[in-house]
Amino acid sequence: MRPDDLLRECHFPPAGAAVDLAVSGGPDSLGLLLLAVAARHVVTVHHVDHHARATSRDDARHVAEICQVLAVRYVGHDVVVEPGGNFEARARSERRRVLPVGVLTGHTMDDLAETVLLNMLRGAGLDGLSPMVEDPTKPLRDVRRADLHAIVGASALRARHDESNDDAAFRRNRVRHELLPVMCDVAQRDVVPLLARQAVLLFDERTWLDALSRDDHATDLASADCRVLRAWPTARLRRWLRVHLRSDDHGDGTHPPSADEVERAVAVVRGEFVATELRGGRRLSRRGQHLTLG
């Protein structure tokens, strides 16, 4: 398989556009690089060295050499992520901190399906069950991982293997290597396209709800009247609270409150509690008919 064969399934900008790519040296990101070059983009490759593995410097050198062969610009970023709990989230946060806004990544349809399942295990709602859909930074979201690896295998490039992708201590690896194969066996079919199609349908529902609630979001916490909010359907109130109770995550963007936090916030609005604690040391309180987030 050649890169040109997959381009029709990709969502790259028009040919000739300048693009930043996040390239680790693994087969997914090398496939992204090959496709971006085939799409005739002006490519800048960004490689992040987390220094989390003994071979990480070799990965950086390998990517730099590939960029030299392909005549594309290479930019290296050094970050330090200490071993310990929640390593994946902390590493992702550091990557987002150093990478340029809008950088393209090699996430495929298989990654989308895995993310849906991971978010489902966390109890996510519509947003978490429709990830990556229409995300311009995920141009390979309709490409299957096996097809992407095939074009890398057919090229002269050699992909690096990140042994952490085999580590069952990481939940995504268990979803990839254990849960998805079981689901395919039970369904007697490949469930990845099914999960991707479900994500698209839910994204459409989510987009419609966002449009319906746009006027609601214009009302901020300080000016909201709890007597008005209490008259809203619960789903409408939850959606409004999710928007206004988002929290920063140190370089990893902003995140909505958890389902439990939203339910406690609903209770505050309805007068069942005077206040509730939220992530990040914040406190939502009600005085009279008005809310304060401190």
Structure write-up:
Helix 5 (109-121) crosses helix 7 (171-187), helix 5 (109-121) crosses helix 8 and helix 11 (234-244) packs across helix 12. The mean pLDDT is 91. With 294 residues, the chain is α/β, with parallel strands linked by helices. Strand 2 (42-49), helix 3 (56-70) and strand 3 (73-78) form a beta-alpha-beta unit. It is elongated and about 70 Å long. The strands form 3 sheets. Strands 1-2-3 form a 3-stranded parallel β-sheet, with helices on one face. Helices cover 46% and strands 13% of the residues. It contains 12 helices and 8 strands. The chain folds into 2 domains: 3-108 and 143-166, HUPs (Rossmann fold, 3-Layer(aba) Sandwich); 214-293.
Short description:
By secondary structure, the chain is α/β, with parallel strands linked by helices.
Descriptive key words:
elongated, alpha/beta, three-stranded parallel beta sheet, 12 helices, three-stranded antiparallel beta sheet, 294 residues, 13% strand, Rossmann fold, 46% helix, 8 strands
